[in-house]
Design goal:
Layout (H helix, E strand, L loop, with lengths): L2 H8 L3 H10 L13 H21 L6 H17 L4 H12 L2 H16 L9 H19 L5 H5 L5 H9 L14 H49 L10 H11 L11 E4 L5 H8 L3 H10 L12 H10 L3 E4 L5 H10 L7 E2 L3 E6 L5 H16 L10 E6 L2 E6 L4 H9 L7 E7 L6 H13 L3 E6 L8 H9 L13 E4 L8 H15 L2 E2 L6 E10 L3 E10 L2 E2 L3 E4 L2 E4 L2 E3 L5 E2 L1 E2 L4 E5 L10 E5 L2 H20 L7 H10 L4 E8 L2 H13 L6 E9 L4 H10 L2 E5 L5 H10 L3 E4 L2 H13 L6 E17 L3 E14 L4 E6 L2 E6 L1 E6 L2 E2 L2 E3 L3 E6 L10 E9 L5 H13 L1
Parallel strand pairs: 1-2, 4-6, 4-7, 7-8, 8-9, 21-22, 21-23, 23-24
Antiparallel strand pairs: 3-10, 5-6, 11-12, 11-20, 12-19, 13-18, 14-15, 14-20, 16-17, 16-19, 25-26, 25-33, 26-31, 26-32, 27-28, 27-33, 29-30, 29-32
Helix pairs in contact: 1-2, 3-5, 5-9, 6-7, 6-10, 7-9, 12-13, 17-18, 22-26, 23-26, 24-25
This protein binds guanosine-5'-triphosphate (GTP).
């Protein structure tokens, strides 16, 4: 007989039997070792009796007969049902094991599931399989699907279930053999015990199950945190419980206590602010952060994950506010722009039309009749927009006639206009720019009202105008179409009321509404640098109400509204939808078309502005090779330049926009022109730095560079070109691109004098008392220009130059003198008088190269 056959007979496993045999002195090597008959007999005798002894020691007082019967049954089972030896064995084992061991089984089983690689107890291994099998049998009977770990969680029931499985139709208690009451009692006791131990083991298993999960979760969480913080080494190895223990120890020594049990955190909160929130010293927070591998200063924003952990350490609960930061916040605000309390708002109107058809006259006529009428004695300000009252309603006019401004705004994504008034002179009819204006308005999807102007003129022919307009899709209502057409005379101020009525009618159709209760949002219509008041922007409020004191962000700037001034020059504390106001309190001059947004506090405003500035800087830095107009052609030929970035600075926003639009419209030849920045005011060091970094050229229109900026441009080799006629600027660029830039007359600054005081001298009139700040002011200069806040306010000739009462030829730096400028009586203290000479610059050779090309092409 072989070992495995004996094992089968005894209902034991080979690995259990082999040591037993060895103990009995029977030499065996493996499960297939042969056994002689004597050995088999001894083994059966010893091991069978051992099994019986085991039964008795299981703590159940049973009768011998019962035991023998049961044992016999076991034997029978072993022999008759060979496929289920395991179950039987379990039953035997179960009886053998003490309560403590029973409890250990599920634990071991649980561990076997949660940590399969872990070494299993010799007991656990054989227990584990039936643990799963037994409920499976039950499952098969009840046809219920139970999750695996649920099945695993019920191992102690195995014994009972095994019994049930052998008599599957009835529960164990009822299935007791009626013939043997003792056996039944015993079984009952067994079943009860099994159920009790099941309950106890379930409890234990729950705990056993819970413990490793928490640990795992904790570890996963820390790992997650580590990945987020980007430094695994910095993770504290302490477990959460340990940490809290540590905190417990530490807390009595702390001087300060958390002010709040729960703190609300939002993105962007600084270390210092956070420390204040949790009532700790910022230095301590910084130290904690350092321990986590994060090097931050008091004013830098804190990582929210880290903040949560630190706050927890100090016993404060953290609520991370889902509030978004920066642009995301603005976007969110824009999306959730629920106009809950929307009320009708005044329409915003732009006037367009062909040159000289009377746009300005019409604007002026409306303003003068209406504004002056409504605001008795009020001085109308030119702030870029104005409001007029029509009965109890209002209409806002944008004061920049022409479709260029309209389109420039639109190109920046800004839609300020609700209605376009197309002015067509009745004597002139539909002209090219009329058609252009129609296209611009249509492209923007803005409804048109036609004002047929100059009807007072003898040559006026309204029908001809209407007829011509039909060709462009505008059919007058009187002719069965849907375009409102009104006959007006800006000169005689007739038809204006009718025009305003029609505007209101159209506005009604458009159902223009806005919610005045929201935080305000508007558009910059115009911006300038005012000497006394600093940067000023005219903002057209589009929704919400703008208040003095509101924190705002516009372009790269942020601040607080210091004062608001209406179009009539009056101070106001608030401005609602469609109201244009001058905003004072800006840190810089924004661009027309910039969105002016109110945010809840200055911190958020600052954050957004900084974010934008950083983005712009990054974008600006990405610019290509440094060039100047002079060597542009050569660089193009070398293939070094594909794009020419241009910085445009002008005296007024309108000129800057117009020049930028014209430059961008220039046909792209070998090089693409890109206007990277336009601004109002003198050329500053920042402009030069921007140009230097982006290899751009700077074009100044009607302005001068500040002395420091001029020096910087010289140092950095930035090409700064100054013009007073847009055409000249465009011509130069075009010529440079074609290699035709004529080396023209170049201006040279001779000297600059600052006006210190104005005084009147009999006969000579108003004289400026000046101090020559650099170079020399000379009568021989080709001309002088008057510069106020870097803007050229006048260019002409020197009138007189005196020291004391004598006319002089030249006054050098460091001396005082009296200056007058020919035909200019508006000199003011603080103005700069710049004297310049004009030099001729030698011609260059590029024309020759260019001349050769067409010839070779022809050949
Ligand atoms: N007779 C008459 N002349 C008018 C009327 N409206 C404007 N004008 C004259 O037409 C000329 C041009 O008027 P503007 O208002 O400057 O025309 P504009 O369209 O603003 O011109 P640009 O600004 O150059 O595009 C001026 O000489 C006005 O006096 C009108 O209703 N009747």
């Amino acid at each position: 007989m072989r070992v495995y056959e004996l094992a089968k007979q005894l209902g034991m496993e080979n690995r259990e039997l082999i040591p037993e045999l060895k103990r009995l002195g029977i030499p065996v090597a493996s499960h297939s070792s042969a056994l002689d008959d004597d050995s088999v007999r001894v083994a059966i005798e010893k091991l069978s009796s051992k099994a019986r002894a085991g039964e008795t020691s299981a703590g159940h007082e049973g009768k011998k007969a019962g035991r023998a019967k049961e044992h016999g049954a076991v034997h029978a089972l072993v022999h008759e049902e060979p496929p289920k030896p395991d179950k039987k064995r379990i039953l035997i084992k179960k009886k053998k094991e003490e309560g403590a061991e029973e409890a250990a089984a599920p634990l071991a089983a649980a561990e076997a599931v949660f940590a399969p690689a872990a070494s299993q107890g010799a007991e656990a291994a054989p227990v584990a399989p039936p643990v799963v099998t037994a409920p499976e049998v039950a499952e098969a009977v009840s046809s219920e699907a139970a999750p695996v770990d649920e099945a695993v969680s019920q191992p102690p029931v195995a014994a009972a279930v095994v019994e049930a499985a052998t008599k599957p139709t009835q529960p164990p208690v009822v299935t007791a053999t009626p013939a043997d009451a003792a056996a039944a009692a015993k079984k009952k006791a067994l079943a009860t015990e099994a159920l009790e131990s099941e309950a106890a083991a379930r409890e234990k298993l729950k705990k056993a199950k819970k413990a490793p999960r928490t640990r795992e979760e904790d570890e996963a969480k820390f790992k997650n945190d580590a990945t987020r913080w980007g430094d695994l080494r910095a993770i504290p190895v302490q477990r959460r419980e340990d940490r809290s223990k540590h905190i417990h120890h530490a807390s009595p020594t702390e001087i300060t206590k958390p002010r709040k049990k729960s703190v609300k955190l939002s993105a962007g909160v600084s270390v210092k602010e956070f420390a204040e929130l949790i009532g700790q010293r910022p230095a301590d927070v910084v130290r904690k952060l350092m321990e986590m591998g994060q090097m931050v200063t008091f004013n830098q924003s804190i990582n929210l994950e880290a903040a949560s952990l630190i706050a927890e350490e100090y016993g404060a609960k953290v609520e991370v506010s889902t509030e978004k930061a920066g642009e995301a916040l603005l976007e969110e605000a824009a999306q959730s722009s629920g106009e809950e309390h929307a009320v009708p708002r005044p329409p915003v109107v732009t006037i367009m039309g062909h040159v000289d058809h009377g746009k300005t006259s019409l604007l002026d006529a409306i303003r003068q009749t209406k504004v002056a009428e409504g605001e008795a004695g009020g001085i109308t300000q030119h702030i870029g927009a104005y409001m007029v009252g029509v009965r109890d309603k209002q209409v806002t006019f944008l004061d920049t006639p022409g479709h260029e401004a309209f389109t420039a705004m639109r190109a920046r994504g800004a839609k300020a206009t609700d209605i376009v008034i197309l002015v067509v002179a009745a004597d002139d009819g539909v002209m090219p720019q009329t058609v252009e204006a129609i296209h611009h308005a249509k492209a923007a999807g803005v409804p048109l009202i036609v004002a047929i102007n100059k009807v007072d003129k003898p040559g006026a022919n309204v029908d001809r105008v209407k007829n011509a307009l039909t060709e462009h899709g505008l059919v007058a209502e009187s002719w069965g179409g849907d375009t409102i057409m009104v006959e007006v005379s800006a000169k005689q101020r007739t038809g204006l009321d009718n025009l305003l009525e029609m505007i209101l009618l159209q506005a009604e159709v458009l159902e223009l509404k806005a919610d005045p209760e929201r935080m305000a949002k508007g558009l910059v219509i115009e911006a300038k640098l005012d000497r006394g008041r600093g940067p000023i922007a005219t903002v057209l409020v589009q929704s919400g109400t703008l208040h003095v004191g509101d924190a705002f962000v516009v372009g790269n700037f942020s601040g607080r509204v210091r004062a608001l001034v209406t179009d009539t020059g009056k101070k106001t504390v608030e401005a609602g939808p469609s109201v244009p106001v001058e905003v004072i309190g800006l840190p810089g001059v924004p661009s027309a078309g910039d969105v002016f947004t109110i945010v809840k506090d200055e911190r958020v405003a600052r954050e957004i502005a900084q974010e934008r500035a950083m983005k712009q800087r990054a974008a600006d830095l990405a610019g290509p090779a440094k060039v100047s107009l002079d060597d542009l052609f050569a660089k193009i030929q070398e293939g070094n330049v594909k794009e020419l970035p241009i910085v445009i600075k002008a005296d007024v926003q309108g000129s800057a926009e117009a020049l930028a639009a014209a430059v961008e419209k220039m046909p792209a030849g070998a090089v693409k022109l890109r206007v990277m920045h336009t601004g109002v005011g003198g050329i500053t060091e920042t402009d030069i730095l921007l140009a230097a970094a982006s290899k751009a050229i700077v074009i100044g229109f009607n302005i001068r560079p500040e002395p420091k900026a001029a020096a910087l441009a010289e140092r950095e080799g930035v090409d700064v070109r100054l013009y007073s006629i847009i055409y000249d600027a465009l011509n130069d660029i075009r010529a440079a691109m074609e290699g035709l830039l004529e080396p023209t007359l170049k201006e040279r600054v001779l000297g600059r004098a600052e006006v210190r005081q104005m005084f009147t001298i009999p006969k000579a009139g108003l004289v400026a008392g000046c101090y020559v700040v650099d170079g020399a002011i000379s009568r021989a200069s080709a001309g002088v220009r008057v510069i106020r806040d870097s803007v050229v306010v006048y260019e002409g000739k020197l009138g007189s130059l005196r020291r004391f009462k004598d006319d002089v030829r030249e006054v050098q730096q460091g001396y005082e003198c009296g200056i007058t400028v020919e035909n200019f009586n508006d000199l003011k203290a603080g103005d700069i008088i710049e004297a310049f000479a004009i030099d001729k610059v030698a011609a260059k050779l590029e024309t020759t190269n260019r001349g050769a090309a067409p010839q070779s092409h022809r050949a």
